[in-house]
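Reader question, answered in our methods column.
A reader sent in the components of a multi-part assembly and asked whether the whole thing could be modeled at once rather than chain by chain. We filled in our standard form and ran it. Here is what they sent:
COMPLEX SIZE: two components
ENTRIES:
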Amino acid sequence: MSISEDRRRILSMLAEGKISPDDADRLLDALGAQEPASAQSEGASPRRGPGAFFGQRFAQFGFGPSPRAAEPSGFDASLRHDGPSFLHIEVDDPSDDKAPRVDIRVPLNMVRAGIVAGSFMPPFGTEHAFGHPTRARIEEMLKVLADLKIDVAQDGRNVRMYCD
Amino acid sequence: MPMLAIVRIREAGGRDFSLWLPLLVIWLVLAPLALIILPFFFVLLAIKRVNPAKGVAAIVGVLCALGGTVIEVESPQSSVFVRIQ
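And here is the structure of the entire assembly that came back:
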């Protein structure tokens, strides 16, 4: 795929509303940065050519393979840990032995999948909550959750919500 | 996709109930039902102008991400423990 075709593809996605103007600008910048880089690295490493580089940029917006798809072969992506893995919700009442205690652990992968599922079903009302988030934005939202710590105490009952 | 669900229920009277449920059996049982519902789901997505492939992938993604879920509720009368892995 030639560079001009890449630019045409970006502009057509912008015209179709699949990406925002800011995203199109970032893509074009990445494409422009890649053009001298590909000229310099010509003949160096044939593994990651312009197509793979551009494919990674597209993948950030939910199209094509995950940004981790270009990792070296043999690398076990499941061993990577880029932030919290679980959302914990705990409810207890230390002052009352008869009060129930609740402990729920939800994988953040499910939160991620739920956000993606909601973004594909805007007629059910979620477009007002999430819009049409790109994969990069979803990851940003989940990274912010790493600092999430909610601790509410009322009438002796504690409610805690945190990620780890 | 999660393959095992562990359910443990304990009651104050000493009655314990533990169940190790292979989810593969449940997926196989639900697969024919899913195939029956799938055309209606596709029609609904087409009406709402949602890419059916992405819709199915999103639902499968949610199911696959269930692994690692733990729900534990304890009270003096009983306790319930559910783990999906």
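What stands out: Chain B is about 45% helix and 30% strand. The beta strands of chain B are 4-11, 16-22, 70-74, 78-84.
Send us your own complexes using the same form.
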